[in-house]
Every structure is written in structure tokens, then in C-alpha cells.
From TrEMBL:
Its main location: cytoplasm. The lineage of its organism: Archaea, Methanobacteriati, Methanobacteriota, Stenosarchaea group, Methanomicrobia. Residues 363-431 form the Argininosuccinate lyase C-terminal domain. Its EC number is 4.3.2.1. One of its GO terms (cellular component) is cytosol. HAMAP family: Arg_succ_lyase. PANTHER family: ARGININOSUCCINATE LYASE. GO terms for molecular function: argininosuccinate lyase activity. This is Argininosuccinate lyase. GO terms for biological process: L-arginine biosynthetic process via ornithine. Belongs to the lyase 1 family. Argininosuccinate lyase subfamily. It comes from the Archaea.
Length: 493
């Protein structure tokens, strides 16, 4: 048996069914590049620590560069994972007396954990950037619509007038928190398990600090058993992604109902719409429906990760191999959903007239009428609530006389007698004034919205700077790794 893994202990080879069952090769395409980096850093460090000879180090690194160039397709896919097929390819290229030394002081357990963290941190960084773009699009559309009236809803019933800007900034704030969560998850993802070997570390005098810095990790995992066993960083990342998808699906749901004839608040750009194979007139918001649907995929991945990790004994168990495909599915789905949502928001047509028209339907100004009675007539809010409640049985456009007829029944006197005027009633019924009066922090008044949007745009810039620091930290470290590899191989890495 030429299988470099099984030839010692095991005497029979797995059949195709067994290979398919146990192999992680298809998901391992996600960590091919990362595995090469881990192999390079480990090899360099092994030589620096006097564990392997310089010549072996150079030959291994040259072999790794060749494998990277050949690509994953060239690897033997009958091995159970990328780590062992890559090592086997290396041995093919440089011979076992050299290639067989690379895995000294290492296990696939610390290797795979390191690879996953390297790929995931890159994905988190890209996701942060995509979320920033989405947030920017939401704020951009908001700043065009600070005066665009629309009905605000509770229970999906018309509630109070607000503006489209106010609604969009609400979503943008949710995305802002999503970004914070991903940044926070990144800080726990970017820690290095390498050097932990199978779980008990190793008797070789490894320099864990060196591989940590060469690979651009901010810190290392301090307990070798925890380092190979934990997948809490996957759970945490998938949880933050689930939260993103929940937020996106809420937006998607609104885009779907807003696109209906009943609402007709927005119209998606044709690029984001589909049509029917039988009803030629149809323009369907399929992209939004798929964002809503794909939220289920990501939440499912989180559930799978939680169920997989629950009650696993320390340390490494092969169950963990089932975790990563769920992570990659969540990553891929979330990133594309963020991009598509951004595109839909940035390009959709806003029917400002239809929104404004509907902003007063359902007596949305009722709260302002009640508030005006409190301010002008000095009555308790609860009493005003009762009076306006009775008026709401009418057409939603009460006159001062109608108000006073009800007031007499409820408090035994007119509100006009207590200072309420017809002018005040008219103003309270005006949706534009309703909105402009709500100018306290967080309210929809155009002045407050302009301030809010500007503050968020600034926040966006500082997050962008934060992300580029994280990116640069990794880039700089890898540059060092590549230049060391170049020194040993004479080849540009
Ligand atoms: N393919 C494995 C995984 O994803 C790599 C680690 C295998 N370790 C082991 N002890 N069998 O988890």
C-alpha cells in the first residue's frame, strides 16, 4: 500500500463508499491555500529551531511552491483530506527523506484548526467590507429621502407618518451592529492553534511565537488541548452571520411587500427581478425572496454547528470535520446575500408619491392629535387617548367641533375652552408637521435625519480604517513569510 497514512497501522484500503463517507476533500478546497501557508511557516520554523536541515527546508518550500502552482486538482483525491494528500504530493516531488520531515511536531489536528482560522478570517474581512458597502447604500438612499413621507407600521398596520430615510437608517443601524459583531468575532478567530499538535503539544522545541507571527495571527491559543478541540469560533461566526441574514431577510420581506400593487412603494431594477413562464406581465422580486429563503440556509448551518459540537469530549474528534462545510456554506450564502441586497437597495425605484399618499391612511396622525390635546388643553394623555380613540371610529380627519363634542362626553367640557384651536388641530393632522416635530435624537424629522446620516457616514469611514488595519496586519506578516520562503528557495513566493 502506497498510502502514506495507512500503510503502517492498517492493512486494507477503504472502498469508494468508505472514502466518500470519510473524506473532507471537497470542502478542503476552501483551505488549500491556507494549508500551503501553514506548511511553509511550520517548515521555516522547524529549520530555525534546528529540527530540520537547511537543505530539507529549502527543498520542502520549493515543493510547496510547485504544489501551489499545480493547484488542488493535481492532488490525489482518494486521500481522506487535503493535509495528507498535500504531504503525499510533496513526498512524490522531493522524496520521503525530505518531504517526510515536514510533519515533525505537528498533527492534522492543529494543522486543520489553523487552516480554518486563516480562511475564515479572510472571509470575515471580506464580509465586513461588503457589509460596509450595504450600509453605505442604505445611507445613500436615506439621504435622498429625508423628506419622503411614508406610513410607519406596527403590526403591519398604518401607525404614524415617518420618512423613508428614517426607515432605511433603521436597517442601516442593524447592519452597523452586524459589522461590530463580525469585527468582534474576528478577534477570536485570529488566534493561532499551531504547535498544539494532536492535543498534548510536542516534545520538539517548536517556536510557536514564530509561526504565529509568520501567519499573521494576533495571538495564540494558550492551551494545546483547547486549541485543537474548540470550534466555538465557528459557532460564533455562524451566529453573527445568522443575525445578518435575519436582518437581510427582514429587509427582503419589506421589499417584497412594498413591490406589490397593494403597496407599490418601490420597484426593483429589472436586473434583480424575474418574470413568469406563463404570465407574461409578471415582474417578481425573486432576489429578495431568495435572500429571505437563504436566511434559512445560514440558520441551518448554525444549528448544525451547535448540534455537532454539543457534548463532544475533548480533544479532537472526527465529528469536527462535519463542522467546516457548514461554516463555508454560511460564509458563501451570507456574503452573496449581502451583495445582492446592496444592489437591490442601491438601484430600486422609490415611488415617493404613492408612499406620501398612503402616509395618512388609517388616521396615522391620531397620536399627534392626542399629544396636541395634552399640550394645549393640559389633560392627561390617557384621557386624550380615549377622546381620539372615539374619533378614530370616524373618517380620520376630525374637526375641532367634532373633538369638542367627544370631549364634552368624556371630561364634561370643551378642549377649545382649555386652549385648543382649529389651527392646532389642522397642524396635528398634517403628516409633514408630524414628522418635523419628531426631531429629538433618533426621530424622523429631516434635520435630525441629516445629522444622523452624517454621523453614520463618519462611523462608516472609521470602521473602514479599522478594517484596513486588520487587513494590513495580515498582509505584512505574509510578506515576511514570503520573503523568508524566497530566501530559502530563490523563487518568488
Ligand atoms: N479532515 C480533518 C478535519 O477536517 C483533518 C483532521 C484529521 N485529524 C484526525 N485525527 N483524523 O477535521
Amino acid at each position: 500500500m502506497s498510502d502514506i497514512l495507512r500503510r503502517g497501522r492498517l492493512s486494507s484500503t477503504p472502498d469508494e463508499d468508505m472514502i466518500n463517507f470519510t473524506s473532507s476533500m471537497s470542502a478542503d478546497k476552501w483551505i488549500f491555500e491556507a494549508d500551503i501557508l501553514v506548511d511553509m511557516a511550520h517548515t521555516v520554523m522547524l529549520h530555525e529551531q534546528g529540527i530540520i536541515k537547511k537543505e530539507d527546508c529549502s527543498n520542502i518550500l520549493t515543493g510547496l511552491l510547485k504544489i501551489r502552482e499545480e493547484g488542488i486538482e493535481k492532488l490525489d483525491h482518494s486521500y481522506e483530506d487535503i493535509h495528507i494528500s498535500l504531504e503525499s504530493r510533496l513526498i512524490d516531488i522531493v522524496g520521503e527523506d525530505t518531504g517526510g520531515r515536514m510533519h515533525s511536531g505537528r498533527s492534522r489536528n492543529d494543522e486543520v484548526a489553523t487552516c480554518i482560522r486563516i480562511r475564515l478570517r479572510d472571509e470575515l474581512l471580506s464580509l465586513m467590507e461588503e457589509l460596509l458597502e450595504l450600509r453605505k447604500a442604505l445611507l445613500g438612499r436615506a439621504s435622498e429621502n429625508t423628506e419622503t413621507l411614508m406610513p410607519g407600521f406596527t403590526h403591519l398596520q398604518h401607525a404614524q407618518p415617518t420618512t423613508f430615510a428614517h426607515h432605511l437608517v433603521a436597517h442601516s443601524d442593524a447592519i452597523g451592529r452586524d459589522i461590530e459583531r463580525i469585527v468582534s468575532a474576528f478577534s477570536r478567530v485570529n488566534k493561532c492553534p499551531l504547535g498544539s499538535a494532536a492535543f498534548a503539544s510536542t516534545g520538539f522545541d517548536l517556536n510557536r511565537e514564530r509561526t504565529r507571527t509568520l501567519l499573521g495571527f494576533d495571538d495564540m491559543l494558550g492551551n494545546s488541548m483547547d486549541a485543537v478541540s474548540t470550534r466555538d469560533f465557528l459557532i460564533e461566526s455562524a451566529s453573527s452571520m445568522s443575525n445578518i441574514m435575519v436582518n437581510l431577510s427582514k429587509m427582503a420581506e419589506e421589499i417584497i411587500i412594498w413591490s406589490s400593487s397593494e403597496f407599490s412603494f418601490v420597484e426593483l431594477d429589472d436586473m434583480y427581478a424575474s418574470t413568469s413562464s406563463i404570465m407574461p406581465q409578471k415582474k417578481n422580486p425573486d432576489s429578495a425572496e431568495l435572500v429571505r429563503g437563504k436566511a434559512g440556509t445560514v440558520i441551518g448551518s448554525l444549528m448544525a454547528l451547535l448540534s455537532l459540537c454539543k457534548a463532544l469530549p475533548l480533544s479532537y474528534n472526527r465529528d469536527l470535520q462535519e463542522a467546516t462545510p457548514n461554516m463555508w456554506r454560511a460564509v458563501e450564502t451570507t456574503r452573496s446575500a449581502v451583495r445582492i441586497t446592496k444592489g437591490m437597495i442601491a438601484t430600486m425605484k422609490v415611488n415617493t408619491e404613492s408612499m406620501a399618499e398612503k402616509s395618512v391612511l388609517g388616521f396615522t396622525t391620531a397620536t399627534e392629535i392626542a399629544d396636541t390635546m395634552v399640550r394645549a388643553g393640559g389633560i392627561p394623555f390617557r384621557t386624550a387617548h380615549q377622546i381620539v380613540g372615539v374619533l378614530a371610529r370616524g373618517d380620520g380627519n376630525p374637526t375641532l367641533e367634532e373633538i369638542d363634542a367627544v370631549a364634552k362626553d368624556v371630561i364634561g367640557e370643551t378642549l377649545n375652552g382649555r386652549g385648543l384651536t382649529a389651527e392646532m388641530v389642522k397642524e396635528a393632522l398634517d403628516p409633514v408637521l408630524n414628522v418635523s416635530r419628531r426631531n429629538i435624537t433618533g426621530g424622523p424629522a429631516p434635520t435630525e435625519m441629516e445629522r444622523a446620516i452624517k454621523a453614520r457616514m463618519e462611523e462608516l469611514e472609521s470602521t473602514k480604517a479599522e478594517i484596513s488595519v486588520l487587513n494590513k496586519g495580515i498582509e505584512d506578516s505574509l510578506k515576511v513569510l514570503y520573503s523568508v520562503v524566497e530566501d530559502y528557495t530563490g523563487t518568488k513566493a
